[in-house]
Amino acid sequence: MAEAGINDARNGSAQDEQATTDGFHLVIDALKLNDIDTIFGLVGIPITDLARLAQAQGMRFIGFRHEQNAGNAAAVAGYMTKKPGICLTVSAPGFLNGLTALANATTNCFPMILISGSSEREIVDLQQGDYEEMDQLNAAKPYAKAAYRVLHAEDIGIGVARAIRAALSGRPGGVYLDLPAKLLAQTIDAAKGRESLVKVVDAAPRQIPAPDAVKRALDVIRNAKRPLILLGKGAAYAQADAQIRELVEKSGVPYLPMSMAKGLLPDTHAQSASAARSYVLAEADAVVLIGARLNWLLAHGKGKTWGAPVSKRFVQIDIAPTEIDSNVAIEAPLIGDIGSCVEALVAGLGDEFPQPDADWLDAIAQRKNANLAKMAATLDKNPSPMNFHSALRAIRDVLKTRPDINVVNEGANTLDYARSIIDMAQPRKRFDSGTWGIMGIGMGFAIGAAVTSGTQVVAIEGDSAFGFSGMELETICRYNLPVCTIVFNNNGVYRGTDVNPTGGADVAPTVFVKGARYDRMIEAFGGIGHHVTTPEELTQALLEAIASGQPTLINAVIDETAGTESGRLTNLNPQSAAMKK
Ligand code: ADP
Fold this sequence. Notes:
19 strands, magnesium ion binding, metal-binding, Rossmann fold, thiamine pyrophosphate binding, DHS-like_NAD/FAD-binding_dom, binds adenosine-5'-diphosphate, lyase
C-alpha cells in the first residue's frame, strides 16, 4: 500500500474517502494539524513522494540544491515565526548535509525539525550494507536538542508532537525526526490514523519568574549607578518587543543590542550605546542580560573587555537555568520567558524607575558622538577602487528608506563592517552568522526569510561566504523570490592579494579567480545581474532590485587589498601570526 501515498500524491485526493491511510499521509496530516504550512528540503529516496504529497495537500514545498541550505532556511523560518521550521532530506548523505544546519539551529536556539528518510532498520542495525545505510538517529543525537525515530504509523502523530514540543519549549533548538522508508509505506485504518494525530497545546508555555528572583534582580537594578541592558537574539526571538521597549525607555538605561537583536529598538534610538560599546562594557557597574549568553561574542563576561579587575553585578534573564553562571557568577538570575520576566521587572519598578547617573549618560553620549563622527568621516570618503566602507554607505542609504527589508549578512570583514554600518529599525529583520560565527548561511537564510515574510531580502555577502551556498541562486530564481544578493568581491578570502611564497603555479590558499563575474551566475538562471565598481552604481543597482522585487545579484567589486585576516577575529588565528615570523 505504499502506492496509496504515491497515487494520492499525484491526484491529491482526500484520504478521508479511503478506508486506510499510510505513513506518508499521516506525516503531512500531523504537520498541517499543527499549523505547519511549509517544508524546505531536497527530494530523493525515500521521501520524494512525501514532498509531492505535501504539495498536493496544500503545503508549500521549497526544493533546494543542497540540504544544508534547506536546513538553514528552515531554521530562520523557525526563528522568525516561533514555529519549528521543517527541513526534509533523504537518508545518510542528505541527512548529514542537513545535520550541519540542525546543529547550527541548536547552537543558535532556533526551533527547527530535521525530518530524514532512512534505510531499513533491520539492515542498518546488522550493518549489512543497505542503500545509504546509516544509524542516523544516533548520529543526530549529539547535535540536536532531541532526536526521535518513529517505527509504527500509529505513532507518527505522537512523534511529530514530541518533535514540535521539544523544538519550541524551554530553550528552542533543533530536533531530529527519523522516518524509515518502511514506516512511510505502512498502512493503518484511516479513522485510527486520524485519532492518533496530536495537536500540540501550548508548545512553549510561559514561564513566570519566581517573586524572590524578581526582587533580587530589582535590588541590583535599583542600586546601579552605571547600568547597562544587553539585548541578545533570545530577546528578539521572544517577540516581547513592547515589554522590552517599556523597560528600556522607562528606566532610561543605555542598551547594547547583539547583532541579531539590532532593530528590537531602532538602532538610531537615543539610548543605544552601540557606538560606545567598549566603553559601556568596561565601565558599567551592573548589566542586565536579556536573552544573550556570555559566550565568545561577549568575551565570556570577563577580562579587560569587561573592565577587570573590577567585577560587574549581573542580572541574567534566560529560559534555560543552566545558562546561569556559565562563564561568570550571576548575582541575580531571572529564569522564565523574556516577556514574563521583563513584565515582572517593569511592574516591580512601578512608578519609581531609578534613573541612571547623569554623569554616566553624559560620558556615554560623548563617546558615542565622537565615534559616530569618526565613522561618518570614514564613510564619507570615496576611494577608488571602492572599499567596504564606501560600498556599505551606499547600501545603508538605500536600506534606511526601507526599514521593512530583511537583511542577511555573512563574511569576515563584510560581516564586521556591515553589522556596525547598516542600522536596523525593526525587530527580527537581521539574520547573520550567529553564535558559531559561521560562513554558509547566506542563501539558505535569504530564501527562508523571503519565503516566510513574503517581503524583500538583501543579502550582504563576502565573496568567500557566498561560495558556500551560491548554487541556491537557482532556487531563488525558480521560486522568483525577492532576494537581492550583493557579493563584496575582493578576489579572495579576506582579500585577494596573497601570493604563493614558493613562486609555484598554485595561487595562495586565500585567493580566488581574479575579476570573477558572480553576476553572470544568476543570469544563467534567468535572474538579473549587475556588475558595479562605484557606490553610485551600487546604489542604482540596489534601487532597481528593490523596485522590481526580482532575483538579483550585484557583483560589487571592491579594493582587493581591503580586508583583514579573519576580520575582527584575527586573534583567533594564531597560525597566521606564527607564519609571519
Ligand atoms: P546573542 O548571540 O544575540 O547574544 P544568544 O543566542 O547567545 O544571543 O542567547 C540567546 C539566549 O536566549 C539563550 O540563552 C536562550 O536560552 C535564551 N532564550 C531564547 N528564547 C527565550 C525566551 N523566549 N525567553 C527567555 N530566554 C530565551
